[in-house]
């Protein structure tokens, strides 16, 4: 076995379509750049909800007008936005 080989769990997915997880549901999406709006639509996430990506075990908020480079295996979680009014 090659000591420099990438373990299978960490190897990037092959092919034009990859699998991501949105709110614990697997979804197939085209590899490459995807807007936050596209990811929300794919996962059935309400437009008003906040979408966050799990990066190295931490939630990273995504701006509504932002985009993510999809390589496969990304995990996204949505939730209603926190009310900022007092």
Structure description:
The protein is mainly beta and 86 residues long. It has a single domain (16-79), classed as Ubiquitin-like (UB roll) (Roll), CATH 3.10.20.90. The protein is built from 1 helix and 7 strands; from the N terminus they run E-E-E-H-E-E-E-E. It has one helix at 36-43, and strands spanning 17-22, 25-30, 32-35, 50-55, 58-62, 67-70, 75-79. The strands form 2 sheets. It has a 5-stranded mixed β-sheet, with helices on one face. The chain has a two-stranded antiparallel ribbon with strand order 3-6. Strand 1 (17-22) and strand 2 (25-30) form a beta hairpin. It is globular, with a radius of gyration of 15 Å. The termini are far apart. 9% of the residues are buried. The model is unreliable at 1-9 (pLDDT under 50).
State the helix count.
1
CATH topology: Ubiquitin-like (UB roll)
Q: Major sheet: size, sense and barrel closure?
A: 5 strands, mixed
CATH architecture: Roll
Tell me the series of helices and strands, N- to C-terminal.
EEEHEEEE
Q: How many individual domains?
A: 1
Structural class: mainly beta
Give the termini distance in whole angstroms.
60 Å
- The total count of strands amounts to 7
Strand arrangement across the biggest beta sheet: 2-1-7-4-5
Oligomer classification = single chain
Task: Describe the global form.
Answer: globular
Taking all residues together, what is the mean pLDDT? Answer: 87
Helix content class: under 10%
Q: Low-confidence parts lasting 5 or more residues at pLDDT below 50?
A: 1-9
Portion in beta strands: 35-45%
Would you identify the CATH H-level superfamily?
Phosphatidylinositol 3-kinase Catalytic Subunit, Chain A, domain 1
Any idea what the radius of gyration is? 15 Å
């Amino acid at each position: 076995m090659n000591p420099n080989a990438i373990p299978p769990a960490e190897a990037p997915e092959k092919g034009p379509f990859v699998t991501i997880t949105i709110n614990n549901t697997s979804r197939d999406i085209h590899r490459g750049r995807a807007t936050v709006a596209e990811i929300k639509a794919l996962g059935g996430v309400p437009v008003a909800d906040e979408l966050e990506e799990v990066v190295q075990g931490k939630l990273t908020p995504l701006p509504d007008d932002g985009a993510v480079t999809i390589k496969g295996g990304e995990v996204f979680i949505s939730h209603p936005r926190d009310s900022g009014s007092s």
